[in-house]
Amino acid sequence: MRSFPEISILFEQYLKTDLPFPGHQERLYEPCRYLLDAGGKRVRPALCLMAAELFGGINPDAYHAAMAVELFHNFTLIHDDIMDKAPLRRGKPTVHARYGLTAGILSGDVMGIFAYDCLGKIRPEHLQKVFRIFNKTAIEVCEGQQWDMDFEEQEEVSIDEYLKMIELKTSVLLAASLQIGAIVAGAPDEDAQHLYEFGKNMGIAFQLQDDYLDTFGAEDKIGKKPGGDIRANKKTFLTLKTREIAGALPVMEALMQKEEEEKVNGVRQLYLDFNIDEHSKNVINQYAEYSFAHLDKISLPGERKEPLRQLAAWLLNRQY
To answer: What's the CATH number for 188-320?
Structure first.
């Protein structure tokens, strides 16, 4: 079993040589290439290939599935950036900011269609099962995005609703990448399902940790100025847990009206006063334990699963 960095390089090479976009209609396809060339960790396609290697080897179907997952993920990024009016992605102008709104919509659409074209190349014996999982996941990602948008307008959001939103918006595609990779390599259904649960719980823990690091992380470690979620008045696990414990605090409402740095420092201190940082760490650890428990249940020797364990540990143990 190869490590995540090794598999990522392998997929990057495949991406450069087998990208499915044709040479005509550059105004449609150049924005697609632009976003893919901007980089990214390639976590989802790498997970797909790692799952395939776990159960016998990376065959052509695994590459088709990995490409489909990466194209679908980037399609969602283009449209998410449009909905969020985001100017930057991976440190560069977003597709719609660089090429215009119409180009962003069309390029995102065609990238999503090419994802399905890649899936269609998978051998018939696996195709129906893979399509079913992929379609279910695509619908759930859209549902998660809608929930995220709804939460901006809702006054009350429960922690359970928030956890469901991040499961759908972030985690299910990680989980499906693993499950599909296992299926095209001939894995037993039970093992493929355990891989799905491993990825789903890892994804939830990862997003909860992002919430934590956005407030309590060190700028030189997380690569951005902490407190962005507080400045944007975003509903995160930390804010929702504070409301669950303390109710509607007048001091919280007053802090939200302050200037940026005073607001960030005040809300951060409020979290510390109510031990929200520790509550957050506990929930992150809980989902990490769920994730590793499913990995342990896969009916393969522990050393074969070690690269996946190391990847999860790396994702979930970024420095605070």
So the answer is: 1.10.600.10
pLDDT at residue number 162: 97
pLDDT tens profile 141-156:
999 999 999 998 998 9
pTM above 0.85, yes or no: yes
Q: Per-residue pLDDT tens for 150-186?
A: 998 998 999 999 999 999 999 999 999 999 999 999 9
Residue 319: what pLDDT?
A: 47
| 206-264 pLDDT per residue, tens | 999 999 999 998 777 676 788 889 988 889 999 999 989 887 677 777 877 777 788 89
Beta bridge partners of 88: 93
Residues 6+ apart with CB under 8 A from 83: 145, 149
Fold of the CATH domain 1-187: Farnesyl Diphosphate Synthase (1.10.600)
User: How far is 262 from 38, CA to CA, in rounded Å?
Assistant: 35
Structure tokens at 229: 């979620």
Numbered ranges of CATH 1.10.600.10 in the chain:
1-187, 188-320
Q: Are 205 and 284 in contact (CB under 8 A)?
A: yes
- Please state whether beta strands 92-93 and 88-89 pair in parallel, antiparallel, or not at all (unpaired): antiparallel
Task: Give the whole-angstrom CA distance, residue 90 versus residue 35.
Answer: 9
Exposure string of 292-309, with b = 16+ CB inside 10 Å and e = fewer, is bebbeebeeeeeebebbb
Tokens of 67: 């490409």
